[in-house]
Design brief:
The structure holds two protein chains of two kinds.
Chain A lengths: L32 H15 L11 H23 L10 H14 L1 H33 L1 H16 L5 H9 L3 H25 L3 H9 L4 H12 L1 H25 L9 H10 L3 H33 L9
Helix pairs in contact in A: 3-12, 4-5, 4-7, 4-10, 4-11, 5-7, 6-7, 7-10, 8-9, 10-11, 10-12, 11-12
Chain B lengths: L2 E8 L8 E8 L4 E6 L5 H9 L6 E5 L5 E4 L11 H12 L7 H14 L15 H14 L4 E5 L7 H18 L2 E6 L2 H7 L2 E5 L6 E6 L2 H5 L1 H20 L4
Classes of the chains: A mainly alpha, B alpha/beta.
Protein name (chain B): ABC transporter ATP-binding protein
GO molecular function, one term (chain B): ATP hydrolysis activity
Keywords (chain B): ATP-binding, Nucleotide-binding, Transport
Amino acid sequence: MPIEQDTRPLEEASPENAPESRHITSPALKGNPDELRDLEAGLDKLQSDANRKAGIDWTRVILPVAALLVLVLAWQIYVALGFKRQDQVPGPLDVLSQFGSLWAEGKAQEAILTSLQRGVIGFLISVAVATPLGLILAQVQPLRRAFGPLISGLQVLPSVAWVPAAIIWFGLSDGTVYFVVLMGAIPSIINGLISGVDQIPPQYRSVGKVLGASRIQMALQIILPAALPGYLGGLKQGWAFSWRSLMAAEIIAVGGTIGFGLGSLLDQGRTLSDMSTVMSAILAILFVGILIELLVFAPIERRLLHRRGLLAGSTR
Amino acid sequence: MPVVLDHLGKRFGDGAPVLDDVNATIEQGEFVALLGASGCGKSTLLNIIAGLDHPTSGALEVPSDGAAFMFQDSALFPWLTARGNIELALKLADKTGGTTKASRAARAGELLELVHLGGAGDKRPHELSGGMRQRIALARALAQDRQVLLMDEPFAALDAITRDLLHDELERIWKETGRTIVFVTHNVREAVRLGQRVLLLSSRPGRVVAEWAVTEEHRTDAGRAGELTGTITRRLREEIRRHAN
């Protein structure tokens, strides 16, 4: 079976006698071109996902509403059992009517709008500052080593701790509020982006390099989109930190040129020992948080994961 | 311009050399199959030719514009559609800004047609089968418009029917585009099927120890192709058995 002339020592195979011939594959392996085209098209059809278009999934609406109803009902039953004085633990209806009168006065709208506006502006500034910083830190090793621990530390430090300092520096002004919000949100967005970059499969960088990406192209066209799921996680957390820091700042720093936000409303309820107002403010803070998650982050996240084929089998 | 490997060596740190004294010349327009057992440094050699890694000794001559690369798994970017992946490659390859968005879109369309996936351009990688992803990856590699195309076991993870199809497709595209192709594989049949020349790389250290020309005769006569495959397989096994003791 061994065929002598098939094995040639290295020296003989000079480029000159490298075969001129273009390929003609052995007939056993080759069909006619049209047949192959059909075969290929058939395989492509069989192996691609059929497009599925889903309508509105009502369980997304019904289930959370049902859960809410159960909780409110439990609350009402607890109040009806009368373990505590009504003015210390008001029932859901008391809180609702108090919120109604705050709304009628225009106070509720003012507080929600003021806080929401500050939260959103503070958050957007944080994103604009944290994104380039995070990209640079993730890409430049000495900087990462130098500042990484500090950024992680800042994320652990409760941003309320900045309130006294901010009041001394900026007085009772919006500056104080924004400073505290930025100190809360920026580190967590940076950290989210860095961990997103750390989780990029190394092959993407190799591909980028082979495709001839410059440093900036690599960062913007490959690293940033590849890190997007982690980055989005960082943004969500950044928003949560913004919102919390904002409430803390509004509760502590009242008066001056600082407007009337949800935190101020909460503090006002405390000074007046008006538990219904306190509960109204707490619930308003909670619902704003839920609404932002449901209306802004959840759809973006779902879309992002779906497009990358990462949603299959998840409970989202 | 040929690719010339001249006494090329590579070692990682203080370890034993992965590649040692590798010599080979690959002519322009040639299709060379680089054959070796797993772990013989084939991929390292390919990475060196691609400029992803550097040799520790010897010299390397590649065309100045570098080489296109196709990976074992398609390595398509999941956030882009099939067409988007190709367009990104066109954009990154364009250093002078000489192309417009429209011209890149048109070129991406042509490349999709070339790999017979004209209708799948708007699909995302996860919606495509493994074979389709590799065809998109091939189109992306061709989008770089470089003379040399390096392929690192690109069909290893595919089923037999798809692999046969892609062999035909690659051969057709090679003829149409006249690229120089270095195709790494551990599959002897694949090497004989595709290569004009088969280079056998030994293991630890990697070195070119034998080479065979695949002639016209082997392509028209299945029996002769089988004989050549047998010969090469025996030589490869011999090479692997050397490491048993």
